[in-house]
Amino acid sequence: MNKKKNPSKPDIAIQSWLRPALTPVPANVDFQRFKSVLDDISNVLETSALEKDAISLALENFPDEDARARNRRAGFAVESLRIEILRHLLGLASFRAAARMICSSDLLAQFCGLLGMDGIRGAGKSTIERRSKIFTEEQLRQLIERLTEACGNTESAGAIGLDEAVPMDVCLVDSTCLDANIHYPVDWVLLRDVSVTLIKAMTLVRGAGVKVRMPEEPKDFAGRMNRLCMEMTHSRHKQGSKKKRKAILRGMKQLLRTIGDHALRHKQKLEKQFDRTRFSKVQATRICERIQGKLDQIDTVIHQAHERIIGSRNLANKDKLLSVRESEVQVIKRGKAGRDVEFGNTLFISENQQGYITDWKLYCDSSPGENKQLAESLERHKDLNLNEPVRAVCTDRGFAGKATSALLEKMEIFDASCPREVKVLRERMKEREFRELQKRRGGTEARIAILTNRWLGGKVRAKGHEHRALAVGWGVLAHNLWFVARKLSDLRKSRAAEAA
Asked: Which of 59, 166, 437, 452 has the fewest CB within 10 Å, making it most exposed?
């Protein structure tokens, strides 16, 4: 049976006219509100040209593909954009949970463009994980900047349904630590972490038929390492504990090197005989890379534990290895009650007075200083096509200083940063605009909590700084789309009240 296509619809668009109708859900206000939010977000994605930009970004690296392949890739890009927005809108950090949720709801599947006449397709756990990485951090920033320009420009704001542009002339900024998804970095525990990965890799290799002679099975090495870890834990706060802990650490060091030697021999044999196993060349290479990565860390974790436990010498933060799986995590000393030190990366956030996130950045290395973070943000803000430039900046005491004041004075921006001296703060509180902005600034910390806890699902599970920064970008995009949808809902309510 031939399906008649709507000629006004391009091939790469979501073909809603070929989809079954949703199951009616009468007398459920919460469902109707949620459906209204999804409808508004879908409308904004189309009218603000975010979907077209997403397609262009997805196709720019494949200029030589034929038309059919490009249409398929374009559809994949649009579906990926919507799935990631929905996943962060629902606060689902787990790809598996997102897959179950989408496949169990026609509404969610329709929003993502996965609902067809033959059912819901393209919502598997692994597929959603691959979709989350279809864009780079820089490409995702371009999409968010497109949305910011659409909201902050009078003409484009009217196109997406707003009665006026969202004011972007005031920036309320703050920074925080985005906690890494790691355990507390105990020195001797890192030895166990390396050994666990090596033992799992050896078990995988031996299960494929590639074996080398060992005095015992890999699981027996794991048991010995666990016993040493338990002895180390229970040796604290006992007489002679310092000497006992040193002896246990020496045993852990020797055992780890033994495990490393066996893992190296398994790796070398797998490289020669992978064609006799069930592994493809790519899979075998990945297993060998995993083993080699942990072998390269053995000397580092042993040296660090030796220096701190046996040598009783401190290491500089820049020389510390905090996690064997997340090498780009930093030690951030914030001095907060109950959390004097945090482990993660510095996250910079800038929002307007209404709560729209205008700028963000997740730093990989140690923070360059809060005044430099602000300078970089203002430079990015200058490149946006908005109605008005930034006229005021409000910060907390951490950003305040001569460098910040000089920067804002040079750029002719009102300085509403909170002074560190109490006497100066009392004088500035007499200024009306300063007082109002400082009162509003308290909500910026709440905005950071909302972003990290709701839109990012707490600790970001993504591995590696690149993927964590990408996850933050998706959270910002979903948050801002939700912000626009809420404004559209409020606008409809006010118009209905005026008409009544």
From this structure: 59
- Domains, the chain: 16-135 (no CATH), 138-182+327-462+473-499 (3.30.420.10), 187-319 (1.20.120)
Structure tokens at 209: 């038929």
254, two tokens? 């020797």
**Cα–Cα distance list, 85 to 10, 47, 161, 274, 470 (Å):** 23, 16, 20, 40, 12
- Of the chain, the percentage scoring pLDDT greater than 70 comes to 96
- Report the DSSP beta bridge partners of residue 177: 346
pLDDT tens sequence across 248-299: 999 999 999 999 999 999 999 999 998 899 999 999 999 999 999 999 999 9
Please, what's the b/e burial string for 133-165 (b: 16 or more CB within 10 A of its CB; e: otherwise)?
A: ebbebebbbebbbbbbbbbbbeebbeebbbeeb
Q: How big is the chain by its Cα radius of gyration, in Å?
A: 27
Of the pLDDT bands very low, low, confident and very high (cuts 50, 70, 90), residue 4 is: very low
Q: Which of 238-242, 252-256, 343-347 has the lowest mean pLDDT?
A: 238-242
The mean pLDDT value for 322-344 works out to: 82
Nearest alpha carbon to residue 359 among 255, 462, 479: 479
Contacts 24+ apart (CB under 8 A), 162-165: 162/484, 162/487, 162/488, 162/491, 163/491, 165/386, 165/387
d(CA 260, CA 490): 62
Q: At what angle do helices 50-59 and 67-89 cross, to 10 degrees?
A: 130
In this structure, are strands 339-351 and 330-336 parallel, antiparallel, or unpaired? antiparallel
Say if CB 178 and CB 469 are below 8 A apart. Answer: no
pLDDT above 50: residue 12:
no
Query: Residue 80 class from Cβ within 10 Å (0-12 exposed, 13-18 middle, 19+ buried)?
Result: buried
Instruction: Read off the tokens for 201.
Output: 């890799």
H helices present in 48-119, as ranges: 50-59, 67-89, 95-103, 106-112
Dihedral sign computed on CA atoms, order 336, 341, 342, 348: positive
DSSP lists the bridge partners of residue 173 as 350
pLDDT of residue 331: 86
DSSP assignments along 238-287, one per residue:
STTHHHHHHHHHHHHHHHHHHHHHHHHHHHHHHHHHGGGSS--HHHHHHH
Is residue 383 packed enough to be buried (19+ CB in 10 Å), middle (13-18) or exposed (0-12)?
Answer: exposed
Tell me the pLDDT band of 13, cut-offs 50, 70 and 90. Answer: very low
Exposure class string for 178-193: b at 16+ Cβ within 10 A, else e: bbbbbeebebbbbbbb
Q: According to the model, what pLDDT value does residue 6 have?
A: 40
Statement: the pTM of the whole predicted model exceeds 0.90 = no
Alpha carbon distances (Å) from 347 to 144, 179, 335, 370, 482: 17, 10, 17, 11, 21
Query: Partners of 345 in the beta sheet?
Result: 178
